[in-house]
Design brief:
alpha+beta, 7-stranded antiparallel β-sheet, 5-stranded antiparallel β-sheet, 27% strand
């Protein structure tokens, strides 16, 4: 096997006609790898992703999943990672973008609204929304993938970077909405709200969009406890946002954002305390069980 990429949470190996993903127990927030390992995290991501890829296949959505091995290893179809920006006739390549669909005001969207960078009126609100409010309509956003930190794009720049036409973006949006409808329905039955999620896609040999990478997990998506939200509007996090909130609470996020805005040296991210490691491990394992309806161990 040839290691071709070592990402924040997984290693990618070239098997010739396909790729092998090995999911690690590393965890990252704000594009920083935390110097702590989370037991069970890699296996949780791999098994949860396999569950959703199988559901995608049943829904008729093209995807790259081939098989799950050893709990945390996944064989997938191979797509090229191109040097530079792809042409609009390019085929069989990974689109160098990330696609986000939001259903509630949370995360970076809430921050942008608070800072006036995103107009709440343009989103369909009469008044500034509170964190956790449901959006009048799903919000489809596109960000960079291979830059040092993710950057929000307008559709014009996204088309250039991704080698896409307007109709390609519409097809991708429709695929995500179709997949998310199944995610929303599935997790709602198990007491969860699916607030938002990120997906990646490739273009196949016929320039059809194909779901790739991973999705519907605690890393890429945001889940809340449905009962608590409906009773009192409480946002009980069941995703990696739980860890992000810890780094916000100790002031690291503010220091990091200040360094990035001023162009100064970014502070190293501190390790998680033992209690947080254990709690985060339990979160990933329990979320796998709740999403899939399957036991972690028989």
């Amino acid at each position: 096997m040839k290691l071709i990429r070592k990402g924040k949470v997984k290693e990618v190996y070239d098997l010739g006609d396909r790729l092998l993903f090995i999911f690690t127990d590393q965890i990252s927030v704000f594009d920083k790898i935390i110097p702590s390992l989370i037991p069970g995290k890699g296996e949780s991501l791999a098994r949860t992703s396999a569950f959703w890829f199988k559901r995608a296949g049943e829904l008729g959505i093209k995807n790259h999943f081939l098989s799950l091995k050893n709990g945390r290893e996944m064989e997938v179809k191979k797509f090229r990672i191109l040097e530079g920006r792809p042409g609009r006739e390019e085929k069989n390549y990974l689109i160098p973008l990330e696609f986000v669909m939001r259903y509630y005001v949370a995360g970076s969207l809430f921050d942008r609204i608070q800072k006036g960078k995103t107009s709440y009126a343009d989103l369909g609100f009469k008044n500034k929304p509170k964190r956790g409010e449901k959006l009048p309509e799903p919000l489809f956003e596109i960000t960079t993938k291979f830059e040092k930190t993710d950057r929000l794009l307008d559709f014009k720049e996204a088309r250039v970077i991704g080698g896409l036409e307007d109709e390609d973006i519409e097809r991708i949006r429709d695929i995500i909405l179709k997949m998310d409808a199944d995610i929303n329905k599935t997790v709602e039955k198990r007491g969860l709200i699916h607030a938002d999620g990120k997906k990646e896609l490739a273009m196949d040999a016929e320039r059809n969009p194909v779901l790739v990478d991973t999705f519907g997990t605690a890393d890429e998506d945001r889940f809340w406890e449905k009962d608590e939200y409906e009773k009192n509007g409480a946002l009980i996090e069941r995703s990696k946002e739980f860890v992000r909130q810890y780094y916000r609470s100790i002031g690291y996020y503010d220091r990091l954002m200040e360094a990035r805005s001023s162009g100064s040296v970014e502070p190293d991210i501190p390790a998680l305390p033992e209690e947080m490691i254990n709690e985060t491990s339990r979160l990933y394992i329990s979320l796998y069980e709740r999403i899939t309806g399957q036991k972690w161990r028989d």
